[in-house]
Amino acid sequence: MSTPILAVREVVRTFGGLRAVDGASFDVEQGSITALIGPNGAGKSTLFNVVSGFLSAEGGSVQFEGRRIDRAPSHRIARRGLVRTFQVPRTLTRLSVLDNVLLAASGHPGERLSGLLLRPARARAYERKTRHRAHELLELVRLDKHAQDYAGVLSGGQRKLLDFARVLMTEPRLVLLDEPMAGVNPVLGRQLLEHVLQLRAEGGMTFLFVEHDLAVVMEASDRVIVMNEGRVIASGTPTDVRSDERVVDAYLGVVPPT
Questions:
Q1: C-alpha span between 103 and 176 (Å, rounded)
Q2: pLDDT class of 28 with cuts at 50, 70, 90
Q3: Could you give the CA distance from residue 153 to residue 172 in angstroms, rounded to a whole number?
Q4: What is the full DSSP assignment across 99-147?
Q5: Using one digit for the tens of pLDDT, what is the confidence trace for 206-239?
Q6: How far apart are CA 239 and CA 207, in angstroms?
Q7: Where are the alpha helices (DSSP H) in the chain?
Q8: Which domains are seen in the chain, by residue range?
Q9: Predicted pLDDT at 257
């Protein structure tokens, strides 16, 4: 059996006397689309923050591509190829849409004065390459016509698409999507979902996403992980999970029609 790209083992995170994440464990397989679901307060967002390095784990471990990352800061985790979006996009509203994407690129030789002075041709070539890639990504998420607009004029749904493009600019191997459909009109939501499916199909990119829209979860995911009260209570295919009595009792309330 292949090694999972992400392995979460007995992770614990508390806030005061509340165990927001209480020994959660699960795997995410390479090239999969995995959904993390559960009722409000189940610990999903806290676990996302731990996995992505925005919160530290107080117990357990998180491994990405076989290397432990639960003690690493978020920027180092991102450089390793695990990147996330947020429920509320973190857009730089006074910069252009294009510049928002360009800022996500890393490894520019001009980041150091020596690289800019000693290898100016290399710096210029990098700028041309990253600008071309940024335009490609804006075209992918259908924001290319807004490239020169201030990001602040975009709608909430468009900002989520911009956030997605910025994540892709980092060339990630695992993307964490935090409620990508929340606050997005159905057309833009469908657009984002199509991008996720396309990137997995064409490039084998791996996704882990938190989502409350069960129709999206059942359509898009290969595997579903269910949390309740800080613990993982079930995992399996969408078909398996939707008929699991523990999931029905804790979250679904009724078994959805097939």
A1: 19
A2: very high
A3: 27
A4: HHHHTT----GGGSHHHHHH-HHHHHHHHHHHHHHHHHHHHHTT-GGGT
A5: 999 998 888 888 889 999 999 999 999 999 999 8
A6: 19
A7: 44-51, 74-80, 97-102, 113-118, 120-140, 156-169, 186-203, 214-220, 238-242, 245-247
A8: 6-88+172-252 (3.40.50.300), 92-153 (no CATH)
A9: 44
